Amino acid sequence: MNFELIITETRGRVGLITLNRPKALNALNDQVMDEIGAALDGFEADDGIGAIVITGSEKAFAAGADIGAMAEFSYMDAYKGDYITRNWERVKTCRKPIIAAVAGFALGGGCELAMMCDIIIAADSARFGQPEVKLGILPGAGGTQRLPRAVGKAKAMDLCLTARFMDAAEAEKAGLVSRVVPADKLVDEALAAAETIAGFSLPVVMMIKESVNRAFESSLNEGLLFERRVFHSAFALKDQKEGMAAFVEKRKPEFGHD
Ligand code: CO8
Q1: Are the beta carbons of 169 and 55 closer than 8 angstroms?
Q2: Whether residues 170 and 46 fall in one domain
Q3: Residue among 29, 67, 105 whose CB has most ligand 1 atoms within 8 A, to mutate
Q4: Count of structural domains within the chain
Q5: Could you tell me the EC number(s) of this protein (predicted)?
Q6: pLDDT of 205-256, one tens digit each?
Q7: Predicted confidence (pLDDT) per residue in 102-129, tens digit
Q8: Ligand 1 close to Cβ of residue 66 (< 6 A)
Q9: Is 126 in contact with 104 (CB distance < 8 Å)?
Q10: Which of 25, 100, 113, 216 would staple 117 via disulfide (CB 3.0–4.6 Å)?
C-alpha cells in the first residue's frame, strides 16, 4: 500500500499505522482519514493481522481536524459532504482491536480519533483536549459523547467547555487511558500489547471487542444476554478446544485463529 500522509508497516501479527504529516502536527484532513480507512481495510482483510496500532509523532498524535480545510466551510459543505461520517466512521467499524499509542498533542479530532480506538496507551508527554470551543465550534467526532463515557460528566464538561488540556497522569486517573509509559518506550509498549492480543484466538478477540462495545449501547440485561449468546458460540471454535486442551495438558496453546 502506498500512502502519502501515513506510513503502514507489519510487525509480526500487528499492523502499524503512523500518521505522517509532521508540519501540521498530524492534523486530520480528508486525505489522512481516507488513507487510515484504506490501511484498515487492508489490515482487516489480512488473516495474518490480529491487532492494529495507530500512532503519531513524538510531538503530536494529532492536533485535531484540519482547521484550514474547514475554515471556509458552509453549512451545506459540511452537511452535504457528510463531513465526519464519510471516512471517520471506518475506524469505529473496524472489527479487529486498535490501540492508539499517543504521544504529545491529542486534541479535538485527534483526541476523538484516539477514543474511537479500543485501548489508549499514552506516553508521559501526552496531552488530551477538546479545544473546539475556542474555534467557535463543538467537538464533532464523538468528543461530547465518548469523553463523558470515558471520564464522566464533570471532567468531560470541564475539558469541552474550558478547552484546557489534560496531561497523561490526569488522563490515566480519569480512566481515558489504560496505561502511561515513558515516551521513548511508547511504540514498543503498544506493539507488545498488540502482539499479545494478536497471539490469542482472532475470533475470540473480535467477540470480546464486540461484547465490550455492546456495554455502551444497551441495558445491562440486554448486554448480558448478548454476552451469553456470544460466549456460547465460542464453543464452536477450534481455538476453544485448543485453549482448554493446552491448559489441561499444561502447555502453551497454539491458536489457529478459527
Ligand atoms: N489544523 C491545521 N493545522 C494545524 C492544526 C490543526 N488542527 N494544529 C496545528 N496545526 C499547524 C499549525 O498551523 C502550524 O503550521 P504552520 O507552521 O504552517 O504555521 C503547525 O501545525 C505547528 O503548530 P504551532 O506552530 O501552533 O505549534 P505549537 O507547538 O506552538 O502549538 C498546538 C501546538 C497547541 C497543538 C497548536 O498548534 C494548536 O492549538 N492547534 C490547534 C488545536 C485545535 O484547536 N484542535 C482542534 C481542531 S478542530 C477539530 O478537531 C474538530 C473535530 C471535529 C470533527 C472532525 C471532522 C472532520
Answers
A1: no
A2: yes
A3: 67
A4: 2
A5: 4.2.1.17
A6: 999 999 999 999 999 999 999 999 999 999 999 999 999 999 999 999 999 9
A7: 999 999 999 999 999 999 999 999 999 9
A8: yes
A9: yes
A10: 100
Q: Do the Cβ atoms of 77 and 83 come closer than 8 Å? A: yes
Instruction: State the Cα angle at 99 between 60 and 192, rounded to 5°.
Output: 105
Query: Domain range for residue 119?
Result: 6-198
Compute the distance between CA of residue 122 and CA of residue 183 in angstroms, rounded to an integer. 8
Q: Are residues 143 and 54 in the same domain?
A: yes
CATH code of the domain in which 206 resides: 1.10.12.10
pLDDT tier at 257, thresholds 50, 70, 90: confident
213 lies in the same domain as 123 = no
124 and 169 together in one domain: yes
Kindly state if the Cβ of 6 falls inside 6 Å of ligand 1.
no
**What's the rounded mean pLDDT across residues 195-199?**
98
**Residue 209 carries which side chain, given as an amino acid letter?**
K
